[in-house]
Amino acid sequence: MASDWLERWRDGRIGFHRDRPHPALVQHWPDLKVPAGTKVLVPLCGKSLDMRWLAHHGHPVLGIELAAQAIEEFVAEGAEGVARYRQDGFDICRQGSVELWCGDFFHFHIEQAAEIGAFYDRAALIALPEATRQRYAFHLAQLTPPGAQGLLVSLTRDPGGPPFSVSADEVRQLFEPNFRVTHLGDGEPEPSGFRESVWALQRRGPLTSS
Ligand SMILES: C[S@@+](CC[C@H](N)C(=O)[O-])C[C@H]1O[C@@H](n2cnc3c(N)ncnc32)[C@H](O)[C@@H]1O
């Protein structure tokens, strides 16, 4: 629920945040061969430094995040000036080539996504309960044009969450209707019982709802 996430940010319970770019991004993004200049959608972006890594590698970034606090912390930790504006009900902060839309990912629609050509999901799918994950996969498909490439960092764990455990079968079942799905590998099991899995997704067309 939205209020739970806002509370987590307020209380500093953001164990998911990493203080350096995610190794799976650094390792696998170059293999996707997404041309520099392609705008990357980062759903449920938090204040992830992965966005700065993508920007540094020539990609305009569009992050969407519920918590204004996360966005303020992101821009406060950056060196460049910040432009602020409002569009279609979202408050937007732009810093360099990173624009951060504050609001609900499910309220972000195709008209606003016109220039998006790629996407990056680390800890977005797995932040959502099972019933919402189907909606997420379909919404992501609606926002991305045929041919768009993306990287997904998912996770399995003992029951509980968030983060929620999303099996390989579920990743395929969620995304295969609208994406070509390739399993790139699994991380080492962590002492916490978490184990990440990394996937390349490529948007097919046209859109299928099941
Ligand atoms: C597990 S964190 C991951 C953040 C980031 N991707 C990272 O790797 O650090 C999930 C984030 O999604 C945000 N969030 C949850 N539901 C959302 C929604 N419906 N729309 C936008 N952001 C959402 C939360 O506030 C939280 O910052």
Give a structural overview:
With 210 residues, the protein is α/β, with parallel strands linked by helices. It has a single domain, classed as 3-Layer(aba) Sandwich (Rossmann fold). Helices cover 28% and strands 28% of the residues. The chain contains six helices and nine strands; from the N terminus they run ααβαβαββββαβαββ. It is found in: Cytoplasm. InterPro entries: SAM-dependent_MTases_sf, Thiopurine_S-MeTrfase, TPMT.
Could you outline the blueprint of secondary structure elements for this entry?
Layout: H1 2-11, H2 23-32, E1 39-43, H3 50-56, E2 61-65, H4 68-76, E3 82-87, E4 90-95, E5 98-102, E6 116-122, H5 130-143, E7 149-156, H6 168-175, E8 179-186, E9 195-203
The protein binds S-adenosylmethionine (SAM).
Keywords: Cytoplasm, Methyltransferase, S-adenosyl-L-methionine, Transferase
Main location: cytoplasm
Family: Belongs to the class I-like SAM-binding methyltransferase superfamily. TPMT family.
Span between N and C termini?
25 Å
What small molecules are bound in this structure? S-adenosylmethionine
DSSP strand content? 25-35%
List the strand order in the largest sheet.
Answer: 3-4-5-2-1-6-7-9-8
**Shape estimate:** globular
CATH hierarchy: architecture: 3-Layer(aba) Sandwich
